[in-house]
Amino acid sequence: MQWRKCFNRALAMSACSALTTFAGAQTLQFDVNSLTASAPGWTGLTHTGTVMLTMDGNSSFNAILIDGTDQPAFSATLMDFQGMIELDNGVVVGGSFFIELASGAKYSCSVPSGVGDVDTSAGATGPFTIDTLTMGGEFDMLVGGSTFGNVDVSMWDDFEPLSGSTLCFKLGPNGSGTDDDVDIDIFIFGEPGDMMDCKEHEPNDFCEEKQTFIADECEYIQGMLEKRMIPGPQPDTWLCVVDKNGNQLASNDNGSMQGNGKASGVWSDDGNGDGWADLLVNNGDGTWSLRLIVTGFPDGFDGNCNGFFQNAPHGQIGEFTVCVTYLDAAGMELRKDVRVDEFVTGAEAFLLNFTAPAVSASVHVEIDNTTGREKVCLDRDFMCFTGLEPLESYCITVVSGLDYDCNPTDTTLGWFDKNCDLIFGDDDGGPAAGYSELCVVADINGVITFAISGKGDDNFDGLNDITYEPHGVCGTYMLQIRRADGGPMSEPVDPCDQVSVSESVQSGDLNEDGIVNGFDLAQMLSNWGLSLQSQ
Questions:
Q1: Residue 54: pLDDT band with limits 50, 70, 90
Q2: H or E segment at 204?
Q3: How far apart are the first and last CA of the chain?
Q4: Which of 41, 77, 313, 367 could form a disulfide with 347 if both were Cys (CB 3.0 to 4.6 A apart)?
Q5: Considering only 58-67, 198-207, 286-295, 521-530, which range has the smallest mean pLDDT?
Q6: Cα–Cα distance list, 183 to 3, 50, 82, 179, 269 (Å)
Q7: pLDDT, tens digit, 9 for 90 and up, residues 472-518
Q8: Distance between CA 59 and CA 48 in Å, rounded?
C-alpha cells in the first residue's frame, strides 16, 4: 500500500495550514483496495480519455483512518464502488467517486478540473499515479445517523459539502488498458461550511480574471500555488531500422510528418512482392518484426545508432512518441502501435521491437517529438476584497502555508490599482520567514486588488524576474485581511438602522406618489396620533 506517501502529500498540499489554523480539523481517510481500472488506449503521462474504476470479487474497503491512525472500530463490507477520472493530455479535467457499504451508508464526491495530473511512481516509466483533489463530498444513510463503517464521521458529515480531499493510487494498465489491482486512498478534511466560499480557485492567473471576496465574510482565505503542465523539451531524434543481428536497414533524421520538423520517420512498402513490407524482418517462426532504434541527433551520422556521436553523448533531452501504423495491400489500417520514451541523460538509444500483424504490406513509422510535458511552479493568484470602508487602511498578511516539503510557502504579495497596474509589493515582510504582508488603502469603492506569487516573481507574471524561468514555488497558503487600526472588519449595526427606507420616503414623500405635499404631512401626523385639524 502507498497510503503513507499519499497521506504526507495530502497534508502538505491540502490540509497542513488548515489543520493548524482551524482547531479540531482532522483528516479522514478511506482505504479501498483491489479495484479494476480501465483506460482504453492508455498513453501514460499524456493520456487523454477516461479512467474508469469499478469493484470486482477481490475488491475490499480495507480501513478508515483519522490523521493516519487506523480506527479499531472499523468494520465494513464494500457493496459498490464507482469512479471515473477524466484526463486531457495527462491533466485531470473532471470525474467523480461513489462508495456504498453493505450497511447502506454511502459517500460520494466530485473531482474538480485542472487540479491534478498523471505522474510516474518513483520516477519510473510505470506504474503511474494519478493525484487530484475531490470536492462536494457528501455522506448519506449513515448508520445511527453518525457512523460509516462503524466509525463516527459526524464531524465531517456536519461540514457538508466536504472539500480539500486528496486521491492517490497506482495504475499499471496492460496492453488493453486494464489494471485489476488498483488501490485508492481518498482523504477528506472537514471545515466549517461558511469557509467554503473563502477559497482561492482557478482560473485567476491574470488580474482581469481575479477572484472576488467580501471582506467581512472572508477574513481568511485558503489558497494554493499549484503546479502547471507546460510543453517540455522537444528532442531532435534520429531513427534507425535494423535486422535481428543489428545491421542497419534504413535511417532517417527529419522525415516525420509529426512534431516540429526535427522528428524522424520512415515508410516501407512491399517492394519485393512477398506480401510483407520490406523493412519487416522474418523471425523464422511465421512472424515478422519491426526493429527500431531511436536516438538523438547527431548520433546516426557516424553510421551507428548507439547514443553517441564520435564517442560523445548526443545530448538530446525530452519525451517522444513513436507511432507505427500497419496497412494491408489495399491500404486498410490493420493496427497502430504507440510507444512513449524519454531522453533523460542525453546518451540513450532506445531499441524497440514490434511484432507486425499478418499481411502487413506497408508500415509507416512516425515520431512526434512535441508530446512531452513537464510540471512546473509558475502559478499566481489574483484576487480582490470588496465591501471595505472607502479610503480606510487595511493589512493583508500571509499567515501560514506549507509547500511540498512542508516548509513555509515562500510567497510574494502585490497591490494593484483598478486598472490592474502594480502599485508595489512585498516579499518577506510577513510574520514568519517567507511570508508576505502589505498595509494599503481601500479605493473609493471599498476595493483592494492584490496578487500572490512565488518568491522572485516581483512583476507577477509567473516567472523569476532574474532567470526568466518559472518562479518554482508551489504550496498552500492562508491569507488574512484586517483593519490597520485594529478595529473590527465591519462596524456594529444599531437595530434601529436595520429598517429599510426607500429614497422617496427619505425625501418626505411618505405615500410615494411622487409629490411632497399636505397628504404626506397628514400621513406623518396620523402616525403620531394627530391630524391637521387638531393643529
A1: very high
A2: none
A3: 90
A4: 313
A5: 521-530
A6: 9, 18, 13, 10, 46
A7: 999 888 899 999 988 887 654 333 333 344 555 445 555 565 665 54
A8: 26
**Are residues 398 and 435 in contact, defined by beta-carbon separation less than 8 angstroms?**
yes
Euclidean distance between CA atoms 8 and 28, whole angstroms: 13
Question: In this predicted structure, what is the pLDDT of residue 23?
Answer: 33
Which grid cell sits at 103? 450497511
Please give the grid coordinates belonging to residue 133: 483533489
Region of 388 (left: φ > 0; alpha: ψ -120 to 50; beta: rest) is beta
pTM above 0.90, yes or no: no
Q: CA 127 to CA 181: how far, in whole Å?
A: 12
Each residue's pLDDT tens digit, 184-204? 999 887 654 444 468 888 889
DSSP-based three-state secondary structure for 155 = helix
Cell of 522: 397628514
Instruction: Name, in order, each residue with C-beta under 8 angstroms of 72's C-beta and a sequence gap of 6 or more.
Output: none
Are 290 and 279 spatial neighbours (Cβ–Cβ below 8 Å)?
yes
Give me the amino acid identity at 528: W
Cell of 229: 503542465
Amino acid at 109: C
Using DSSP, state whether 136 is helix, strand or coil: strand
Closest CA to 101 of 80, 84, 82: 80
Residue 305 in grid coordinates:
545508432
Rounded to whole angstroms, how far apart are CA atoms 527 and 49? Answer: 71
